[in-house]
Write a structure and sequence with these properties.
The protein is an alpha+beta fold. 27% of the residues lie in helices and 13% in strands. The protein is built from eleven helices and twelve strands. The strands form six sheets. Strands 1-2 form a two-stranded antiparallel sheet. The N terminus and C terminus are likely disordered. Pfam families: EPL1, PHD_2, zf-HC5HC2H_2.
Length: 431
């Protein structure tokens, strides 16, 4: 067997030619060398230390150490500055040293002049005598004459209403002409001119119309007062049974049924002009209303939310009943919330059972029941008084305390005042 061998030819590797780079001069070694024994501080230690390197050594100062403050005028500082200056200027030409010395001298003189320091020795940069203490700048001021203007005294109120007298009201004209008045007056003046009569000015026209309207209004008020029944001075409110009235809470009398009510008790915020009619006389004056809470007829009534009638005083005293709108005191709501046991009570005054909803005597262990209007007719003790109650959250809430007693538990000294505004019901047992 023949074996052929082939020798490898040597492969010559071409070396890449290096680019010729310019020689960079090496930096001289820094004379300040880092400290070989530098300790690593923790975060808490680094927060309390100030670290700096000086002449190759690490120096650490605590922020709590007291440092002495040295001023530029201290002899030690000046000596150190001179030594440093001599050391720096040792290898410099003499001319540069003179220029630097002159510049330092001028700066020192300017600083001393600003601080007010005097007593320098001539020909040298040292102080011949003792250093004078720096003077504080003296304040400068000038008096400016200024006179405040006379300001009138401010009144107690910016707006004050002064009611005009009757003489001033008689002279005042409140009517203002409009476009129709101008056109109508122009036609009237043309007719009067053709008839040889004087012209009517705008001021005269406004004055005459103003007087006509006011006279007509006063005449209508007089006619309305003649139709109204005479006012009873001893009349009381049929709801609260109080005869006192105020300017903002007067007693109103219905022009048809003559029922008397307070504005706040019946919900009349504004008194209408002319005659005033209660709610029942406005809607159904032909038949007396039947109250769903008592058997008596007449008195001040309002409609319920299911289109029935009920006495306002009954709705006030029955605990489960109220009003949807407390300003206008209507409609009466909550009738469906009355428990069946209240409907089954028997009034000890009218002897009616299961007719209306009765209330009971406020005396403890007394369960005598009676209708609200029956109690008014009998003159029982019934009192409402406002009280302030504190809730669990600490808020003060105004509530009404209602107290009613039967005839047997009427407080001593209480004068009974029966209210005779309701129609006589069916008599039982002589009552």
């Amino acid at each position: 067997m023949i074996t052929l061998s082939r020798e490898r030819e040597p492969v010559k590797m071409k070396k890449k030619a290096r680019q010729h780079r310019p020689m960079v001069p090496q930096r001289s070694q820094s004379p300040i060398k880092p400290s070989p024994n530098k300790q690593i501080l923790t975060y808490a230690q680094a927060q309390r230390m100030v670290e700096f390197e000086l002449d190759g050594r690490i120096h650490r100062l605590s922020i709590y150490d007291n440092l002495d403050v040295i001023s530029n005028d201290d002899p030690v500082v000046q000596e150190m500055m001179e030594c440093t200056s001599n050391k720096e200027n040792a290898d410099k030409p003499q001319q540069q040293v003179r220029q630097r010395s002159a510049r330092l001298k001028n700066n020192q003189e300017k600083r001393n002049a600003a601080l007010g320091i005097t007593g320098h020795a001539e020909g040298s940069g040292h102080h011949a005598g003792g250093h004078a203490a720096p003077k504080l700048p003296e304040p400068k001021f000038r008096v400016v004459e200024y006179n405040l203007p006379a300001v009138p005294k401010r009144p107690g109120a910016f707006y004050k209403y002064i009611e005009k007298t009757e003489e001033e009201l008689d002279e005042e004209t409140e009517y203002d002409m409009d476009e129709e008045d101008y056109a109508w007056l122009e036609l009237v003046n043309e007719k009067r001119k053709s008839e040889g009569m004087s012209q009517v000015s705008h001021n005269v026209f406004e004055f005459l119309i103003d007087r006509f309207e006011k006279e007509l209004h006063l005449e209508s008020l007089d006619q309305a007062s003649e139709k109204q029944p005479p006012v009873d001075e001893d009349a009381v409110c049929s709801i609260c049974m109080i005869g006192e009235c105020h300017k903002s809470n007067t007693i109103l009398f219905c022009g048809v049924c003559s029922v008397s009510v307070h504005q706040e008790c019946y919900g009349v915020p504004y008194i209408p002009e002319g005659q005033w009619h209660c709610r029942h006389c406005l809607q159904s004056p032909t038949q007396p209303p039947d109250c769903i809470l008592c058997p008596n007829k007449g008195g001040a009534v309002k409609k319920t939310d299911d289109e029935r009638w009920g006495h306002v005083v009954c709705a006030l005293w029955v605990p489960e009943v109220g009003f949807s709108n407390t300003t206008f005191i209507e409609p009466i709501d909550g009738v469906g919330q009355i428990p069946p046991a209240r409907w089954k009570l028997t009034c000890y005054i009218c002897k009616e059972k299961s007719v209306g909803a009765c209330i009971q005597c406020h005396k403890a262990n007394c369960y005598t029941a009676f209708h609200v209007t029956c109690a008014q007719k009998a003159g029982l003790f019934m009192k409402m008084e406002p009280i302030n109650e504190v809730t669990e959250t600490g808020e003060s809430v105004l509530s009404i305390k209602k107290t009613a007693y039967c005839g047997a538990h009427t407080p001593n000294g209480c004068v009974r005042r029966p209210l005779s505004i309701y129609e006589d019901a069916k008599r039982k047992n002589g009552l």
